[in-house]
Amino acid sequence: MSRARPNATNRPSVSRTAAVARSVLEGARRGNGASLFHLKTVLTPGNFNLDILDILVSHLDEQLVPDVQDEGEHLAPLTDVSVRALHCISALSAVIGGCEKKPSLKEPAVERILQVFDGIIAWIYVLLYHGLGDPPERQVGVDFRNAYFFHAKQLLDLINFDERLLQAILNSISATDLVIKFFITTGKRHACFQNLDNPDGCPIVSLVSKCVESPQGLEAVGTRIFAIRPEMPARVMRNTMERAVQIQVWVKDVRGPSRLVSGTRHFDRLVQLIHRLLKYRPLVPLFATIDKLEGFETLPTIATSTFMHKNFFPQFFTLALNVTTLPITSVRYVKNVMELVHAAFTLFMACLGMCNDAIPDSMATLEGVVDAFVSYSLIPSACFVTHSDIKEVPPSALSPIRPYPAFDVSWKWLFLAITKRWEVFQNIPRAPRAVVLGGLVPQSSITGGKFGSCLPICDNLVCPIVREEFFVGGSKKCTRCSSVVYCSEQCQKEDWKARHKYECDHARVLYIDHKSSQHWYSNKTRLGHMALIEDVFNATAEGLEYDPEARAKRLQSSTNSADRLFDLLVSQKSEPDKRVSPPSPVKDEQDLAKRLPDRIYLFQPGLYAPKLDDYPKIPSGRPTSWAPPYLHKRLNELLAEGSDPGKALSIRYALGVMPWGTDKVRLMVKLRWTQDYGFEALHSVAIAATFSSHV
């Protein structure tokens, strides 16, 4: 097909402020391809006006877009109208520059662009279908990816130009699909499109990052990822991993400081994009299937082997933070997440070993990384992984950054937390039975009775099994869990599948999605959580000092707390459909506990920060055998002695998550040994219990 194209070598030399010739404008208005090409060539921010914009948008109307045939059929013939649309889209960069130079033109210009925005999106689809970018000539040797880079850059410029254009993308299904198309399209050998030669970053990665920057954008793009095809989430993750490998290969091909600096920036942008995508909760089920997460644990390894340089360690600390702050509720469902934790910890230690001078701006990031690893150490398998790396590294190894005492404290806390928890986990006996989440047992495990040989215990450290209040006034049980009833009369009226799992404050973080419902939650992990809580009690009750020898003597003279807890749960669950009252304290404990509080409130999960008034109180006259009345006064005295109201809330939460019985009375009595440390001890237990309830 013949199309009139001006010779690029004979383009007229026009001043940046010279007005566009009238003949060119008239020809462009009539749709002459040569005139539109000439207009695009001579248009500058200096000679732009709204009349020119009217000409451009007239050729971008959605009604002019031709039908594009389905994939697998022959390409539809390229028409002059498509080339004219390409020239108009290419001229939008000059339009944006003209509005920045003349701010008075921005408002009417944005309104005109919004009127034809759907047409712009539709035209980009057609032009990508034909592989047309700027320049439009498809010559031998011209990379097909250039069209994707060009149009992604045009869209990126538009949404950076005005926030309303970004909202237009997020509100349009076809526009969000186009953004995803940019990201997942691959060429030969399934290589994804990524422009690493652009010093400002790959326009495709920048476009997607900009779209998911806000919660609204994350919801729009994340929803479309799931709405297009079921395999789309895994495809997005595989494409992301492919981009990371491309960056690594690109840096190693040409070794040099400039290539390393540029590659570090590309890699950092990509990791930030991954972190934003994984904040969208529906993407969490990706962790439930190992093959969908395959290669993700290589991100820290790539960073360690390729981008390690002492001048860039703040970016690496940020990378370690992004990797370690993935949704923590998923870490117990996937085996290779432990590999991810190990790789991230290796990256963290490598960063500390290479930095010679600490930058104060990085201290907040370092604190976040330390907090993440402290949280992971509450999981026995993750604790063993990190302990294997840290056991040979004394605190003195961090001397290069010792001018900052704040981080010395954090490092000591990380070192001691991992070491102490590893010692606690070493003393956990092998569980006599397995615990299955929600009573859902694989068929092969059913050997007899309703639940076979497996003990159905709800995955809920504030489980209503031990709360008599939940059994008063109702008996309807959750359809997914045989161990609990609904947490309130209002929740009882709602169906579990429709609302309870997603809207109930208790159930929102205490249960997992249906796809992960049959994954095993090892009893060893649960026993480890409760053993850690007792260990914190023992340490704080004796003056906040950790004494391994004293603890060993206690272990020899008494039964392990985890064993007693397990026996207590087994005895209470031996008859699932009957109410079980906690055992009464012995006489000596009653005498000692007279100074303890007499009421324990209901507590919401630690992910939230509810007000004190949000905790419902026990109505008078209701049975309180689960919370003896002699506990109220002493707890109020302790809370009144504290200086931080936030600690009071966490203390109440900690007492709520601990199973009620003689164990709780015994542990609370221990805290009365040293009144000076009582408040801090309870608060430290609250922190441990909060972590344990949702890791």
TrEMBL record:
InterPro entries: Znf_MYND. It comes from Coprinopsis marcescibilis (Agaric fungus). Residues 460-504 form the MYND-type domain. The keyword Transferase does not apply. Keywords: Metal-binding, Zinc, Zinc-finger. One of its GO terms (molecular function) is zinc ion binding. Gene3D superfamilies: 6.10.140.2220. This is MYND-type domain-containing protein.
